[in-house]
Amino acid sequence: MNQHPYPSLGVLLVDDEQAWLRSLSMTLEGPGGISNLQLCRDSREVLDILAARDIGLVLLDLTMPHLSGEELLPKILEKHPEVAVIIVSGMNQVETAVRCMRLGAFDYFVKTAEEDRILDGVRRAIRLQELERENRSLRRRVLSDALEHPEVFAGIVTDDRGMQAIFKYIESVAGSSQPILITGESGTGKELIARAAHELSGRSGPLVAMNAAGLDDSVFADTLFGHSRGAFTGAETARGGMVERAADGTLFLDEIGDLSPASQVKLLRLLQEGEYYPLGSDIPKTSRARIVVATHQDLADREAGGHFRRDLYYRLRGHHVHLPPLRQRKEDIPLLFDHFLEEAAASLGRKKPTPPRQLPVVLATYDFPGNIRELRSMVYDAVSTHPGGILSMNSFLKAMGRTEGAQENAATEEGENPFAGLTRLPYMTEALDLLIAEAMRRTDGNQTAASRLLGISQPALSKRLKHSRE
Known about the structure:
This protein is of the alpha/beta class. The protein has four domains: about 10-140, 3-Layer(aba) Sandwich (Rossmann fold); about 150-325, 3-Layer(aba) Sandwich (Rossmann fold), CATH 3.40.50; about 330-400, Helicase, Ruva Protein, domain 3 (Orthogonal Bundle); about 430-470, Arc Repressor Mutant, subunit A (Orthogonal Bundle), CATH 1.10.10. About 45% of the residues lie in helices and about 10% in strands. The protein has helices at about 20-30, 45-50, 70-80, 95-105, 115-140, 160-175, 190-200, 215-225, 240-245, 260-275, 300-305, 310-315, 335-345, 360-365, 370-385, 395-400, 430-440, 445-455, 460-470, and strands spanning about 10-15, 35-40, 55-60, 85-90, 105-110, 180-185, 205-210, 225, 240, 250-255, 275, 285, 290-295, 320. The strands form four sheets. It has a five-stranded parallel β-sheet with strand order 2-1-3-4-5, with helices on both faces. Strands 7-10-13-6-14 form a five-stranded parallel β-sheet. Strands 8-9 form a two-stranded antiparallel sheet. Helix 10 packs across helix 12 (about 310-315), helix 13 (about 335-345) packs across helix 15 and helix 17 (about 430-440) packs across helix 18. It is elongated, with a radius of gyration of 30 Å. Residues about 405-415 have low confidence and may be disordered.
């Protein structure tokens, strides 16, 4: 299997000294995990390489024959202003460094500096270049109404505009190497979004999912990083962890809000350094897996309360997606209901049942604390116990904690007049306004759902609401 090059943008090393090029490339490829490298010993070829290849970062020596780095720097920035340039020079001269920075260099390092300092500078430049590219991609997609890869999101049933905006955002950031944080209540579809991000990333490795809920530090470390032979009693053979399985792919960590403080430190190191230690080993391994995490908890609140590391929180939310609960997507309830009804019937080898006419209205008045997962369970349970004909309401009402004939404001005998016994009958306009107000209350102000409750069109309801406000 071919490894997915990191980063997606190319890194060009320019130096006339072969030994230094080899040493620097080994540093970047080994501890840095930076594999998308191109080496150049002749400075006269640099502009042609930049024109022909997708290069985002140049590491440039200053003292070279034919065309010096100081001469080449302004030419690069003039013709390729989107490219970042780091000067790596054998000269430790403050005046030269200041002059290069004024010309537009991203950073300046002396060759005798510690390798870690140069590597940190390169990583910082790569992160900023990736963010620049993602911002340009996001701006382009915001101006366009169409998704570039709608097939990736085909399994997510929605007509909600907010969800469409999330799809566009995922298209923009999927190719990044930075983490994606997916938040939202349980049952909102966080893993589906993680799978879409993985499919769009173009990575050659698999998506490997791990649920971190309830894991103590030792189990978390062993599951994530694996162990060497003899690491603990019973470890008779070495075993690779989830990080190793996700090589050149995506590692999806669900419920990371539950991580212990010690596990948070280990995850932070993996994100910062791209390195990890299997249990019982003092030799670090490098990971090229893209990290996607999810939680139903409010990490900002947990961080403020001292339960989640601040540095880890900000590292994770480089890209952040928040999925709305189903009660804020009530237009999607009929679509999801029909989808699950067809899916459940097919899985049970039955004909698709006919739902009762009043069921969509009842569903529109329910808040679905379990979100999409709860609606799916309701439908599957109802279909599995369905004897034939029209689908029964009882299963749904029971799941919602209601009983047939005992719903809100509907506990009267069929045909009983709700105005019976009133001393003064309301005027027609008063009764209509009260009816509309109650429908809007039950649907949290959602006009589409309220219009279904009232049996009128959404434009008619909108017109009436506008008239009432005037």
